[in-house]
Amino acid sequence: MKWLHILLIAGTSCIFFACANSDQSANDGGTGITSNVQQLSYSVAATYPHDTSSFTQGLEFYNGKLLESTGNLGKSKLMQVDMATGNAVTSKPLSAELFGEGLTVLNDTLYQLTWQNRKVLVYDAKSLQPIKELPLNTDGWGIANDGQNLIVTDGSSNLYFYEPGTFRLLRTQGVTMDETPIGNLNELEFINGFLYANIWQTPYIVKIDPSSGQVLARLDFSDLVQRVKTKIPQYDTGNEATLNGIAYDSTTRKIYITGKYWPELYEVQFEH
């Protein structure tokens, strides 16, 4: 989906992969081009089932429970998911005209974005009962919070900081990698003072300094993408079933990732 952005992917991808190649060359001592972006490795600590009908748009932990937002018109949902089975414990369907996107929980309040509807759905996080709707001044893609502000992406190279409760725009922060804007910022998670963002339709997650917008590090999950390709015959990284979804359980300090229609959810550890 999100075909309105498809024409932008080629240019953005060229910028992104040029940065990646420059960084790789610097690491190999090739061209002499230097990069400030650190390459992080990862390991998979555990694997859990994931519902392959879920078009994952947002992933979040709240009080030890895994919450998930899914997209597609007529199929969008807000769910509490049983990690052991991958099945929904609670499922709240969205209205047929709404396309679900990212979600985050702040002060026991759950905020779920919609894509081009430009509405934010607000729930009581404990009961998942709807409270109200708020307007959004951009398309909705990913959302996270830093404990004070709500932080939103819209598929551009910007981060938007909003006031909780009102969704009043506080500031806009551009994101750059080696001084070049990097677009297609998607699902977000705030972990230990930094934002981690999926780059739509790539196998990459980037670590961002939220105060400056500078990309500090990058993780390449190509190996997991290849694993998923063997499990989903119709997998198309340039179309639908792309890497998307980052969740941090602050109680256990564990990080989880998955993708749209992926058959598995992975507990991962980031390493230098």
Task: Give a description of the structure.
This protein has two helices and 22 strands. The chain is mainly beta. It has an eight-stranded mixed beta sheet. A four-stranded antiparallel beta sheet has the order 2-3-4-5, with no helix packed on it. Strands 6-7-8-9 form a four-stranded antiparallel beta sheet, with no helix packed on it. It is globular and about 50 Å long. 39% of the residues are buried. Mean pLDDT is 88; it is low at 3-33.
List the helices and strands and how they pair.
Layout: H1 6-28, E1 38-49, E2 56-62, E3 65-70, E4 77-81, E5 88-93, E6 100-106, E7 109-114, E8 119-124, E9 130-135, E10 143-145, E11 150-152, E12 158-162, E13 169-174, E14 176-177, E15 180-181, E16 185-191, E17 194-199, E18 204-208, E19 215-220, H2 222-231, E20 243-249, E21 254-259, E22 264-271
Parallel strand pairs: 1-19
Antiparallel strand pairs: 1-22, 2-3, 3-4, 4-5, 6-7, 7-8, 8-9, 10-11, 11-12, 12-13, 14-15, 16-17, 17-18, 18-19, 20-21, 21-22
DSSP strand tally: 22
Order the strands across the largest sheet as they lie in space: 16-17-18-19-1-22-21-20
- SSE string, helices as H and strands as E: HEEEEEEEEEEEEEEEEEEEHEEE
What does the average pLDDT come to? 88
Major beta-sheet overview: 8 strands, mixed
Q: Give the radius of gyration.
A: 17 Å
- Tally of alpha and pi helices: 2
Rough outline: globular
| Structural class by SSE content | mainly beta
Q: Helicity level, as a percent range? A: 10-25%
**Share of β-strand residues:** over 45%
Low-confidence stretches: 3-33
What is the straight-line distance between the termini?
34 Å
